Each structure stands twice: as structure tokens, then as C-alpha cells.
Amino acid sequence: MYPNTRLVRPLRNGQVTLPAAFRHALRLDLASMLQVTLEGDSLRIRAYNPEQLETGSDWLRELYHHFRSIRCESALSDEQDVNSFIDQAIATLRAKADVSRRS
Description:
Number of domains: 2
Number of strands: 2
Distance between the termini: 58 Å
Order of helices and strands: HEEHHH
Number of helices: 4
Helix content: 40-55%
Largest sheet: 2 strands, antiparallel
């Protein structure tokens, strides 16, 4: 087996636990996103950070960053709170876009 390889067992719902050493090496936390790619008969898992992407929409990247705190929470209160938070985030980004267009 390769030095950076570990055996893990999928749980009932298909969940897999990443070894702590791997999570620490990649600096993963509860808000981290992972990109999972199926390549033939292999899975490729890598840390995903949209803020480091060279392509894509700046406003979408900023919106993703704006939701970091909500992604860190273990449970959301209710759908109305989530919708309110989304509306607030979109209004904030639209206001920033209006200011930048006027400049």
C-alpha cells in the first residue's frame, strides 16, 4: 500500500470518513467543500475552494464566501430563516454591484 493510503469502510448511507491526518494536511473543517470525481473505477477527492478558481463569476464566488458562517452551523433553524438569510445576502451583493457600476 502507498504511504499516503488508508483503508476506510463506507457506512450504511455511503458516507466515508476521511482519516484525521488527511483532514489536517488539507486543512479541512466543517465548512470545507470536497470535489468528488469518478474516474473509471476510482474516486478522486480533492479540497474545493471556489475562491481560488480562475474562472467563474466573481459575484457567485462572493456569495459563496458570504454563506460560510451558515455552512459552518450544524443545523439551521427553519426554512424561513434560511430564505431570509439568502435574501439578505443577495441584497448586499446587489448593492455592492450598484456602487461599483456607479464608480
